[in-house]
């Protein structure tokens, strides 16, 4: 019996040293090679500070809309909705998002709406949308702001991020960066 207690105690001490000390130091060291040393991407513009790696809500029609959030963009409660795609409540929520999008974007057909503009990501904090989700909003923004659609298309192209290492994932656009560039755009 004493041998088991001593072995369990020794395993606990070794695990604590490894996972609290060594593993944490390794993760911290790797983060130093990441952009902004693992502290997130901070953007300052017009005396305001933004975190570009956390999704934010844009409800004004003169801006590109973000991906919906299951946690109201609260980084302290990062999570998805945990509802299955067949859940009736989830389907009602997505249908409400589709209906709202169609009201704010007249002329767009339901079949044209990219899924990422009406469904939340797994974290609920995704700061990016697809290129298609940005392009489908061009007509609305051009009309409201009086900006040529060609200028908005060029803005989308200049803010499109390629897949990781050119291989992993789709092209994407950070909505905060796009909207900040939109505010700076002159027709």
Automatic annotation (TrEMBL):
Membrane-spanning segments: 12-34
Homology family: Belongs to the KdpC family.
Protein name per UniProt: Potassium-transporting ATPase KdpC subunit
Function: Part of the high-affinity ATP-driven potassium transport (or Kdp) system, which catalyzes the hydrolysis of ATP coupled with the electrogenic transport of potassium into the cytoplasm. This subunit acts as a catalytic chaperone that increases the ATP-binding affinity of the ATP-hydrolyzing subunit KdpB by the formation of a transient KdpB/KdpC/ATP ternary complex.
Subcellular location: Cell membrane
Major site of localization recorded for this protein: membrane
GO cellular component, one term: plasma membrane
Database matches in InterPro entries: KdpC
Ion transport keyword on record: yes
Higher taxonomy: Bacteria, Pseudomonadati, Bacteroidota, Cytophagia, Cytophagales
PANTHER family named in the record: POTASSIUM-TRANSPORTING ATPASE C CHAIN, POTASSIUM-TRANSPORTING ATPASE KDPC SUBUNIT
Superkingdom of the organism of origin: Bacteria
A single MF term (Gene Ontology): ATP binding
Pfam families reported for this sequence: KdpC
Organism field: Emticicia aquatilis
Gene label: kdpC
Assembly, per entry: The system is composed of three essential subunits: KdpA, KdpB and KdpC.
